[in-house]
Amino acid sequence: MAADARLICPSDALVDGGPGFRFTVMQYGKDEPAFVVRFRGHVYGYFNRCGHVPVELDWQHNEFFDHSKLYLICATHGALYAPESGRCLGGRCNGKGLMPLPVTERDGAIYFTPTE
C-alpha cells in the first residue's frame, strides 16, 4: 500500500447498494466532500458533487442510491449516475458525470490514495 494512502472506513461499513460513507479530500487547499459506495461487489469513490451544479448528492446522510439501488441519484435535481463509472445517465447532469477518486479495498478496509 502506498505510504500516503488514507483509511476511509472498514470494508464491512459498505453493503452492496446500501448506504455509502462520507469523507473529505483536500483539493486546491480546501477540504471537499467525497463518498464511497459498494456496487456489485466493488467499491467506488467520487467527489460528493452533482455534475449539474456543485450540490451534494445524498438525499439523507450517506444515502446515494435511488430506490432501485441501481443508480446514484442527486437529491436536488434527480440526475442519475452509473455507480461503476460516475457517468451521467439522465437528468440535469446533461452528460457531466461525477468526478472519480482513487480508492482501493484491501485487508478489510477502504483506502483513498491521493494522486497530487
Provide a descriptive summary of the structure in words:
- This protein has about 120 residues and is an all-beta fold.
- It has strands at about 5-10, 20-25, 30-40, 40-45, 70-75, 80, 90, 100, 105, 110.
- The chain has one domain: Rieske Iron-sulfur Protein (3-layer Sandwich).
Q: What is the top-level CATH class?
A: Mainly Beta
Task: Note poorly predicted spans.
Answer: none
- Using only C-alpha atoms, the radius of gyration works out to 13 Å
Output the number of helix runs: 0
What is the CATH architecture annotation? 3-layer Sandwich
The CATH homologous superfamily is named Rieske [2Fe-2S] iron-sulphur domain
H/E topology pattern:
EEEEEEEEEE
Oligomer class: single chain
Mean pLDDT: 92
Key phrases:
single chain, 116 residues, mainly beta, Rieske Iron-sulfur Protein, 4-stranded antiparallel β-sheet, 3-stranded antiparallel β-sheet
List the topology elements.
Elements: E1 6-10, E2 21-27, E3 30-39, E4 42-47, E5 72-73, E6 80-81, E7 88-90, E8 100-101, E9 103-106, E10 109-112
